[in-house]
Amino acid sequence: MTGWPDQPVIYEINTAVWLDGLSRAAGRPVTLAGVAAEDWDAAVPAGVDAVWLMGVWGRSPAGLALASANAMLQASFAEALPDLQRTDVIGSPYCVRRYAADAGFGGPDALAVARAALAARGARLILDYVPNHVAPDHPWVASRPELFVRGDADDIKSDPEGWMAAGGQVLAHGRDPYFPPWPDVVQLDAFSPAMRAATADTLADIAGQCDGIRCDMAMLMINRIFDRTWGGRAGPEPAQEFWPAVLGELRARHPETVMIAEAYWDKEWELQQQGFNFCYDKRLYDRILGQDASAVREHLRADLSYQSRLVRFLENHDEPRIASCLPADAERAAAVVIATLPGATLWHEGQFEGRRVRPPVFLSRRPDEAPDLELAGWYRRLLAAIDSHRVRAGAWRLLQASGWPDNQSCRNLAAWSWAGDHNGDRHLVVVNLSGQPARARIPLDWPDLPGRSWRLTDILRQNVFKRDGAELASPGLFVDLGPWQFHLLALQ
Predict the structure, then answer these.
(1) Ranges of H-type helices in 81-184
(2) Pairing mode, strands 453-458 and 150-151
(3) CATH 2.60.40.1180, the chain: domain bounds
(4) 347 - beta bridge partners?
(5) Residues 313/283, Cβ–Cβ less than 8 Å
(6) Which of 177, 232, 244, 309 is the most exposed place for a label (fewest CB within 10 A)?
(7) Per the CATH hierarchy, to which homologous superfamily does domain 9-388 belong?
(8) Is this prediction's pTM over 0.90?
């Protein structure tokens, strides 16, 4: 499937956990080739453009053995899953042995069936890529040591946690600049021309199996970050950055593939410039969870060309479940923010149902939790309404909420408008990002407002208000919102 939308809506599924749940419900093993039609329908909620099947690649037996022997990991597994069984631990999906679908999920043929099932529902398939490391039993470890950061016997003696012996070579374990090494993976050398060529080939192979690729910890491959992490052990810094080199090769072979960067440390814009279509918006996530309306508004003042290439989210497999972080009303207000901003949006399987436990990615099973059916229905109505009303079409504008001398509660509001190019679509979003009531005037700057009466329809609740256009322009729409309340309005 080609022709990605400019602002895709992505639904992330933990493949192992999802298939385990389907298997238990069916009373038999279910692979990606055996997922029932109604389960694929549920995996593509109305308004979703792409499904990210997280963790489809073959798990590493060596990585599993290391995880099983790690007391800290085992404790985290038992905390998330109190009735943990040995068979629940299947290894990390980011300790990659090879980029072929795991045999337990049905293998490559089953992945192709899954892609076709999604395409039949108008959804694209996103898969993972890990650029900075591989599993210790990846074929390259034995056959291509030149692709890795290498050391010597003295390194193992002085830092046994950071290095390993393999095939007569001393190779580094993967790491980032701020944390200890990861003991279950081997560090690839971002400066090696051979590794860059191998990366381009691997990405091209993955692109042949899907429509988009999410790159794990993409900022670690930026030249100066890689150099700082490894302190010159990889040799001199190349003249060309890693991502432009490998993405240039990928674009020549698969120009339609959408590339998504997991990005932190304020490297989003830089990675966009280096060729990624979209980058995680972790800053917005942090500011929403910090319940800081002014910080959210400041964040949204960034250039629109930058914002339109961010991925907005409230949770994913690396972050806590949002239901465990925010009160129910605050979660809904935050979801309206995420759903109505420019850029891509990401939703996590289980988020709609109010799940509170985030299972570690090493596990194939999650604890039983009673679903919040009312919340699930609300989320699905939200996504469907955004889609059917074309809320995010046309020109987006951040609006200013104004108070008056004895009322500064306007500071708790965030507001923006969309002016579509289809049948005069216009939408207004106002969200109270606080636990206190907020009142304000919000001037709307469409020049044709005065001289007409306007109907404002709440597209979730179907409430209808009528307002004079001159008042909407100045002093502006009067809003009076309780804690965490919002308006999601269509103007006609």
Answers:
(1) 107-120, 139-143, 153-158
(2) unpaired
(3) 395-491
(4) 11
(5) no
(6) 232
(7) Glycosidases (3.20.20.80)
(8) yes
